[in-house]
Amino acid sequence: MIQEEKYMRAAIREAKKAYALNEVPIGCVIVQNDKIIARGYNRRNTEGNTLAHAELAAIKKASKKTGDWRLEDCTMYVTLEPCQMCAGAIVQSRMKEVVIACMNPKAGCAGSVINLLQMAEFNHQVEIRRGMLEEECSSMLSGFFQELREKKKKAAQAL
User: Fold this and answer.
1) Could you say which of 2, 24, 32, 125 has the lowest number of CB atoms within 10 Å?
2) Is 55 marked active-site?
3) Model pTM score
4) Contacts with 75 (C-beta within 8 Å, 6 or more apart), sequence order
């Protein structure tokens, strides 16, 4: 468990990179054979690109590193439950497992709104573990959105 927490802490460091860019602080790492092979963090606003999610960035890097689109022996550690786009990419990559810090009741697709990772109708299902360092990740996300609301309120008052 301590080794796995190390990987989630690495994902949190990636999320903090997003936070520093005023992006929603979501980060992830992909692990293969007890080694981090790819990292990613949310850069949607920075890049002006819908596809610039942490999970997609990490999957792209992991595929380049392994030389294969199949990531069957890999585990992803992610700070927030993946959305439908990322969940679909995770299934398509044949990822073995996803470890999720906190769930996303409004848009999560690993069990909150729907569970795309474990649909029997798909040709691949992904193992899921939830709640690793949940409080730390949840606090970071809550803090980010609180700051965002305060900034918007100050901007509105300045008008």
Assistant:
1) 2
2) yes
3) 0.93
4) 7, 30, 31, 32, 95, 96, 97, 98, 99
Alpha helices by DSSP H, listed for 2-132, are 2-20, 44-47, 54-66, 84-92
CB 130 within 8 Å of CB 111? yes
DSSP string for 95-144:
-SEEEEEE--TTT-TBTTS-BGGG-TTSS---EEEE-TTHHHHHHHHHHH
Cβ atoms of 71 and 108 closer than 8 Å: no
Distance separating alpha carbons of residues 22 and 2, to the nearest angstrom: 30
- Residue of 47, 55, 97, 135 marked catalytic: 55
The SS3 of residue 94 is coil
Whole-angstrom Cα distance, residue 118 to residue 123?
10
